[in-house]
Amino acid sequence: MNTPDPDGLLAEQLLRFTRRVHRIQKRHLERSDLGITPAQSRLLRTLAHFGSPPRMADLAERLEVVPRAVTTLVDGLEASGMVRRAPDPSNRRVIRIEITDEGRAALRTLRGARRAAAEEILAPLAEEQRQALGTLLDTLVEGGDPPAAIERHHRC
């Protein structure tokens, strides 16, 4: 006799949902006509969260990828004028990655594309369902600390 596997079903639903989110976000990114990949988009968004221009190693650590992957992404963004490499003023051997005006403009476009993708994804949900989903996702992201997740979600 087969017993139901609710955790297996839930895992499959999460994987299918994740693939759907990526597909929709990729479509909205392509519509933005920025000519950048989802990975370059992620690097650009991450770069914008640093208080000062980071080193490649800092970006690799934050993105949880190998430094060589960051080099390839920065090369592409630099070729399109969205970032530039700059020597560190205190140690010329260190290279920092700076976002350019073109990169800031691209970020504004990316934010719009991400909002449009989120609206498409969340369209079937009522407001209270969206709030409940946000709380649940915060809990999962935090690894099971529901009070902190709920508090943070209500501050947003």
Summarize it.
The protein has about 160 residues and is mainly alpha-helical. The chain has helices at about 5-30, 40-50, 55-65, 65-80, 100-120, 125-140, 145-155, and strands spanning about 85-90, 90-100.
Low-confidence stretches: 152-156
Fraction in helix: 55-70%
Number of strand elements: 2
Strand content: 5-15%
Instruction: Give me the Rg, rounded.
Output: 19 Å
The ordered string of helix (H) and strand (E) elements is HHHHEEHHH
Anisotropy-based shape: elongated
Structural class comes to: mainly alpha
Strand order of the largest sheet: 1-2
**Terminal Cα span:** 47 Å
Could you walk me through the main structural features you see in this protein, from its secondary elements to its overall organization?
- The chain is mostly helical and 156 residues long.
- The chain is built from seven helices and two strands.
- It has a two-stranded antiparallel ribbon.
- Strand 1 (83-88) and strand 2 form a beta hairpin.
- It is elongated.
- The model is unreliable at 152-156 (pLDDT under 50).
Task: Please write out the topology.
Layout: H1 6-31, H2 38-48, H3 56-63, H4 67-79, E1 83-88, E2 91-99, H5 101-122, H6 127-142, H7 146-155
Antiparallel strand pairs: 1-2
Helix pairs in contact: 1-5, 2-4, 2-5, 3-4, 6-7
List keywords for this structure.
156 residues; mainly alpha; 2 strands; elongated; disordered C terminus
